[in-house]
Specification:
Order of helices and strands: HH
Keywords: Membrane, Transmembrane, Transmembrane helix
Number of domains: 1
Radius of gyration: 17 Å
Strand content: under 5%
Helix content: over 70%
Number of helices: 2
Structural class: mainly alpha
Number of strands: 0
Largest sheet: none
């Protein structure tokens, strides 16, 4: 993918996470920015952990596959 396509894809992910966080925060306390940021960090953490694990697994498989050749 080209750089512009990556920027568009990442911006859609960020916009989606922001909308998800805004809707989750509005059910609790809509007047507090602290709650919004706290919920955003939680969502990013729970989103980032599987991505990190998948990335590490991919790199391990890629390295092992390169050693066999």
């Amino acid at each position: 993918m080209k750089r512009l396509e990556w920027i568009i894809a990442i911006s859609f992910v960020v916009i989606g996470l922001s909308c998800l966080t805004m809707s989750a925060t509005s059910m609790m306390k809509p007047e507090s920015i602290h709650d919004y940021l706290n919920m955003l960090m939680r969502i990013c953490l729970w989103t980032g952990i599987p991505v990190l694990i998948a990335g590490i697994t991919y790199l391990i498989f890629k390295r092992n596959r390169g050693n066999k050749r």
